[in-house]
Amino acid sequence: MSITPLKPLDLFWFIPVSGDGSYLGTLDGHRPADFDYLKQIAQAADRLGFGGVLIPTGRGCDDPFITAGALASHTQRLKFLVALRPGTLSPTLAARQAAAIDRLSQGRYIVNIVSGGNATELAGDGIFLSHDARYEHTAEFLSVYTRLLAGETVSLDGKHVRVTGAKLDFPPVQNPPAVWFGGSSEPGQEVAAEHADVYLTWGEPLDQVREKLDQVRAKAAARGRQVRFGLRIHLIVRETEAEAWAAADALIAKIPQAAIDAAQKKFAEESDSIGQKRMSALHRGGSRAALTIAPNLWAGIGLVRGGAGTALVGTPEQVAARLREYQALGIETIIASGYPHLEEAYKVAELLFPALGIAPNKARHHGTQPGEFGTSGTGITPARASAS
């Protein structure tokens, strides 16, 4: 039985600019992140009715701003949540780039601020600030960035950022584009409470997510602000529970133990991200023994993937029920993904959208006959499901 929602969740998808495939931790079936493939995923998400897509940032990713600008011209309604790491460019230049993409996409740009990360990678980008100092810098960065996009002329003589008379001559369509932000540490939550429109969390058990959201909500209220909330998670949805768990097992079936050990060592030694430490703790630093950490919540992806490492696994009704539990905590937007991202976008739209009450995008639908999939020309309406 489908769940009748009081309010549909806003469901975003993911653009895998690092590459894609059917198996984690191996080159078997690997799909390079060439533009034609990324365009296929973006156009599928646009056609199916996803609200937007996240484009990540980092050394292992193609540049998200350039990718978003290119994909915007091949889509119609899809929003682009573009990851941006303060410290890799000035807030003034970032605001100019943001305004350009917002104009080119006719108001479909959102920024995802990423302050944390791998210390080795950050050093390669010329960022040598400590964990807490990075969030101090982010706060100053956003003070300039958001005011510029709101049309102000900005001067700031800060500890990390200094600008005099900064302004935009070419404004964005939105005034200003929204700021989405994630950070599990105390300094990260303080930045979110002061500057974020949407605070993002990774898929942890409900009690952990509730505690984090309550903390951010209270910090924002102390500043006279309200913050909305989003959840970044993977989805493995199939018609039966057995099929879903088989797909989860297959996803990690080819990972050699050496790859898990190397990934976990890298996360432990090179990352000072509190969020990453929380993810690693869910599977006890790389153990396959107990990956189901809550009803339908599976930590297998985090064995080798940094960042969001959990998935909801199950039937459409089961996954929808779990998402509704997160929604009851205040989550409004789900940023989802699945491997491979092209096929899984269709599975999620076809199986999960109805269970969540999300209406498909009908802008391009037409009256094509069912043909071999129904009873074309007979006047009989084909059933949704039938015996094989």
Automatic annotation (TrEMBL):
SUPFAM superfamilies: Bacterial luciferase-like (SSF51679). Belongs to the SsuD family. It holds the Pfam family Bac_luciferase. InterPro entries: Alkanesulphonate_mOase_FMN-dep, Luciferase-like_dom, Luciferase-like_sf, SsuD_RutA_monooxygenase. Coiled coil: none annotated. Keywords: Flavoprotein, FMN, Monooxygenase, Oxidoreductase. NCBIfam families: alk_sulf_monoox, PRK00719.1. Its EC number is 1.14.14.5. The gene is ssuD. It comes from Elstera cyanobacteriorum. The lineage of its organism: Bacteria, Pseudomonadati, Pseudomonadota, Alphaproteobacteria, Rhodospirillales. It is an enzyme of class 1 (oxidoreductase). One of its GO terms (biological process) is alkanesulfonate catabolic process. This is alkanesulfonate monooxygenase. Residues 29-332 form the Luciferase-like domain. GO terms for molecular function: alkanesulfonate monooxygenase activity. Residues 363-388 are annotated as: Disordered. Gene3D superfamilies: Luciferase-like domain. The keyword Oxidoreductase applies.
